Amino acid sequence: MQNTAILDLKFEDLKNKITEDIQKQLLEFTLLINSTQKEVLNVPEAARYTSLATSQIYKLTHLHEIPHYKPRGKKIYFKRSELDNWLLAEKQMSHIEIEEKALQHVQRRRKNEPARK
Known about the structure:
The protein is mostly helical. 68% of the residues lie in helices and 3% in strands. It is built from 5 helices and 2 strands. The chain has helices spanning 2-37, 43-50, 54-62, 80-87, 95-112, and strands at 40-41, 78-79. A two-stranded antiparallel sheet has the order 1-2. The N and C termini lie far apart (102 Å).
């Protein structure tokens, strides 16, 4: 009988922990959805949107490495569209894209070369 009480207690703890985790995930999801619908984001929203820590966001603003706004020198805001551009700014080409670009370059050079005799 005592073993059943221990199992019930552990089951109840597990159920509470799962419920708590689901609620946290749901809150995060809701906040993320809200931040993707707004055009102007604050620091915590920008951190969630970019998947960066808030401390990293503050560091990037301090170093002027991320586009941001500070009306009246206080709170920091971001335009979502500018964050998108910043996130996608330094595209790394795939091997296929590099090969295609090299082929185009070679073809252009051959086209512009005078015929050899």
